[in-house]
Amino acid sequence: MRFFVTYNAAEQGPPNPEKMAAIGAFADEVTKAGVLLDTGGLLPPSMGGARVQMTGGKFSITDGPFPETKELIVGYAIVQAKSRDEAIEVCRRFMAVAGDGTGEIRQMSGPNDPPHH
Q1: pLDDT value at residue 112
Q2: Which residues contact 99 (CB under 8 A, 6 or more apart)?
Q3: 12 partner at 20 to 30 Å CA-CA among 66, 85, 97, 102?
Q4: How far is CA 112 from the centre of its chain?
Q5: In sequence order, which residues have a C-beta less than 8 Å from that of residue 81 and are 6 or more positions away?
Q6: CA 11 to CA 105: how far, in whole Å?
Q7: pLDDT for position 92
């Protein structure tokens, strides 16, 4: 099963070099184990972001920044796990390295994924 995982750091700004090194070491470990399929950071909406919406057939665009900046996703990962519990454990281990924050785990659905019931 694949899971899309988000992370919102409690602290604003990029991590210090030591924390980045620890995050990199963790990412290398879980990549080699076949658990981490993809990861990346997301720039703030003020750097080319936009919010899009379709309402009643009318498409609209709102450029960033957006008022609820504390809720912005700053990073994501796509994780291969045998179960939801295993995906949660990967997140727990990541957050132990990355630090305080919040996240969300969502099981992915695609043509190569098992059917969901």
Answers
A1: 73
A2: 9, 10, 11, 15, 19
A3: 85
A4: 21
A5: 1, 2, 3, 35, 87, 90
A6: 20
A7: 95
| Mean pLDDT per 10-residue interval, the chain, length 117 residues | 91 85 95 95 80 91 70 85 95 92 91 67
* Ramachandran class of 13: left when φ > 0, alpha when ψ lies in -120 to 50, beta otherwise: left
Helix (H, G, I), strand (E, B) or coil at 63: strand
The pair of three-digit structure tokens given for residue 75, joined into one six-digit string: 């990073």
pLDDT value of position 49: 81
Residue 34, SS3 per DSSP: coil
CB atoms within 10 A of CB 102: 13
In this structure, which amino acid lies at residue 116? H
Distance separating alpha carbons of residues 98 and 22, to the nearest angstrom: 8
Per-residue pLDDT at 117: 57
Contact of 67 with 44, CB cutoff 8 Å = no
CB 79 within 8 A of CB 2: yes
DSSP state of 71: G
Q: Rounded to the nearest 5°, which phi and psi values hold at 102? A: -130, 160
